[in-house]
Amino acid sequence: MIFPLVLSCLSWILIHAQVHDDIVECNEKIINQSQLNAMNINEQETFATTILHEYNLNLTTLAYITSSSEFESQLYLNDTNRRRTMEKYYEVYRNCLKSIATVARRFNKLITNENSSLYWLLQRTQAIGDAGENDPLIKLRLQKLKSHIKEIYHRKFIWNNTKLGIDEAQELLGKLNSPADLLSLWNATYEVAAPMRDYYSTLIAVQHEQAKQNRTNEKSDTPANLEERRIVEQLWQELKPLHELIHAYIRKQIARLYPGLIEFDQPIPVHLTKDLFGLMMTHLERDVLPFSHISGIDLGPAMKRKNFTEEEIFRYADEFFVSLNLTRAPDSFWNLSVFKRIPNHHMACHPTAFDLYKYDDVRIRMCTSITSRDFYIVHHEMGHIQHYLQYHQQPFWFRRSPHGAFSEGIGDAIALATMSPAHLKRIGLLENYKFTKEENIQFLLSQALTRLFLPPYAYALDIWRWSVYNGSIQPFEYNKRYWDLICRYQGMKPGMPRNERYFDAGTKLHVAFDLSYIKYFLAHVFQFQIFDVLCREAGYEGPLHLCDLHGSKAAGRKLKILLGLGSSKSWEDILEEFAGVRTFSAQPCLKYFQPLREYLEELVANDQLQVGWKCQSNRSSRKQFQMNFVGYIVILYSMFYFLLE
Ligand SMILES: *[C@@H]1O[C@H](CO)[C@@H](O)[C@H](O)[C@H]1NC(C)=O
Ligand SMILES: *[C@@H]1O[C@H](CO)[C@@H](O)[C@H](O)[C@H]1NC(C)=O
Ligand SMILES: *[C@@H]1O[C@H](CO)[C@@H](O)[C@H](O)[C@H]1NC(C)=O
Ligand SMILES: *[C@@H]1O[C@H](CO)[C@@H](O)[C@H](O)[C@H]1NC(C)=O
Ligand SMILES: *[C@@H]1O[C@H](CO)[C@@H](O)[C@H](O)[C@H]1NC(C)=O
Ligand SMILES: *[C@@H]1O[C@H](CO)[C@@H](O)[C@H](O)[C@H]1NC(C)=O
Ligand SMILES: *[C@@H]1O[C@H](CO)[C@@H](O)[C@H](O)[C@H]1NC(C)=O
Ligand SMILES: *[C@@H]1O[C@H](CO)[C@@H](O)[C@H](O)[C@H]1NC(C)=O
Ligand SMILES: *[C@@H]1O[C@H](CO)[C@@H](O)[C@H](O)[C@H]1NC(C)=O
Ligand SMILES: *[C@@H]1O[C@H](CO)[C@@H](O)[C@H](O)[C@H]1NC(C)=O
Ligand SMILES: *[C@@H]1O[C@H](CO)[C@@H](O)[C@H](O)[C@H]1NC(C)=O
Ligand SMILES: [Zn+2]
């Protein structure tokens, strides 16, 4: 899912590395530039092809050794020797990327010529992130700061006599019920990130120094980034009315569950969502779904009744891909992946899919539990695995997603298909489902709980990161401005007053690891677009949310286009080949949830649901007055509302 996943693009051990994988060399080839300049385009292409072929082999082996080492060291977080080995491999690997980038730029007749067959390949050799840093001082400072912040993120704390990390706290939060326990654990978890604050502001300052050397990153205001932000804003405007309706509904249900803790015109205290960030509310399902007389779609009890093991959930996902005539995960995947927490072991638990780049070696590391939430996350991670397997034949530089939204959206689209009531019924996890209107509304609400709260969170989080980077949010106001954005976009608030001693954004892995998050926003929109295309390809015509793709070879063929091309073309070109359009659209998402929207709009029309929330604002006094005025109307309205109830 989502949020899981994370290292999937750049992650790349030693115990499992094959004996003959010695560290290979990877040097900068000496090329006589005047000879090169004398060649015509065809001659340069032939020459470049030979060189890139050699680098492809060496880089693949280096990536294999490095990613094996990364996988291993995440399983033994306390082992500093393993970490040192991994860092050593990373160093060699980064230098290799950098040498290749330099050599590629020598082919000046090809790298700037869109007509050359090597244009995209040479362009992709340039996307090397931090490895391209030339200033050794900046490079060292960045590495130190980043590893320090990561170390803080992985720190453990004690709660109710139990040692927990952030990931484990998330898991436990879903099992608690009393608001006092929820708040207490939420509060203790947010304590972890507080020491990151100063390191983070230093990190931003060092990245600014890099920017002066013309080295931009995903937080910079480059034209491409600004264009992406424009698309995000537009998609958000389309999604907002639907989000507000569902927000209002969930708020009302939580208020019923915990009387007296929520007002009907106020944001939802985030700990009451049983999710650290209020972005995926699967754990609330059994408490907030309507029509409690019908049995519901909580898969946890059904899977437990059927004695599912962790590995079996992965087997179900694999079977699904096989039914579409896609690739079965190889034996090594089942032998080398880690599907559950290893006892008495300080290991990373954040669900992650690894491409090891060689021998078809792909793996997942996840501390799975037998719940609906993890059923979904497993399918998401298996989507990454299928992607790795499909683009395996591409040269190294194309073995990645052309856009973050692709890799993250594909797994989610598969999860949409496998969580369709029709499919769940087929595999025996939803035996009593009758496809009544009430059941469908209940199902769509559960899907909304899983998928519709991430976009506003992701948008708020990255606006915060972009604003910190461009200086419009300063260190002294990090926390306040974070919660302002959370209120504005998500309609949520902290469980208790926060102040600038904390660094609440850092509780999210992607801030602590300095990774972009907006791709999850786009992926959450894109997954419905992918699903819609696949359902049409499969010849399905009913309501989108009931489409089951199981066994459709036609859908499988279509999905291959999206997966197998890797990043060998621009994402717009791949999208066009797949969907016939060149940009992301929110319409399929709105179409999927349409029956739910109609149901909620009816509740609003009957005064059974109050939409919207107020955020505290520190505007000037005149504006403050207007705000209050608006506020009174809302308060009056809500009193009226109580009378009607
Ligand atoms: C690739 O690795 C081989 C074996 O280590 C080495 O002989 C060769 O020089 C390497 N090629 C490059 C371009 O570094
Ligand atoms: C590069 O090639 C040219 C032409 O073949 C030759 O004259 C020159 O000496 C070469 N330069 C180097 C540094 O080898
Ligand atoms: C690429 O090909 C197109 C059409 O064949 C031509 O118009 C264009 O000038 C070419 N571009 C370059 C840089 O050669
Ligand atoms: C705290 O731990 C005790 C003993 O393990 C357990 O019985 C209790 O349920 C826990 N409390 C909460 C709120 O989890
Ligand atoms: C929240 O955490 C702080 C710092 O750990 C602690 O002092 C405070 O008592 C906690 N409050 C609650 C309600 O758990
Ligand atoms: C950065 O780019 C600008 C504009 O392209 C150029 O003027 C400047 O010299 C570059 N600075 C460095 C350090 O390369
Ligand atoms: C699940 O395991 C329990 C205890 O081992 C056994 O009694 C039960 O029959 C099993 N259920 C299924 C569906 O296999
Ligand atoms: C299944 O996939 C194989 C290999 O990609 C292909 O040759 C075959 O035609 C596909 N079968 C169908 C029914 O599409
Ligand atoms: C996976 O494990 C099985 C059983 O332990 C073994 O027979 C098989 O050779 C292994 N396969 C791979 C690819 O490691
Ligand atoms: C890992 O290291 C931390 C601190 O460095 C220590 O508190 C913890 O007990 C260690 N865990 C294990 C399982 O060795
Ligand atoms: C900084 O970035 C934020 C978020 O993209 C934007 O709203 C703001 O206008 C930017 N400020 C400046 C000074 O560029
Ligand atoms: Zn993912």
Automatic annotation (TrEMBL):
Pfam families attached to this UniProt entry: Peptidase_M2
Name by which UniProt lists this protein: Angiotensin-converting enzyme
GO CC annotations on file: membrane
Binding-site residues, Zn(2+) 2: H380, H384, E408
Cofactor binding annotation: Binds 1 zinc ion per subunit.
GO molecular-function term, one example from the UniProt record: peptidyl-dipeptidase activity
EC number annotated for this UniProt entry: 3.4.-.-
Single Gene Ontology BP annotation: proteolysis
Native source species: Adineta ricciae (Rotifer)
Top-level taxon of the source organism: Eukaryota
Keyword check for Transmembrane: yes
Cofactor section: Zn(2+)
Keyword Protein biosynthesis (UniProt): no
UniProt keywords, alphabetically: Carboxypeptidase, Disulfide bond, Glycoprotein, Hydrolase, Membrane, Metal-binding, Metalloprotease, Protease, Signal, Transmembrane, Transmembrane helix, Zinc
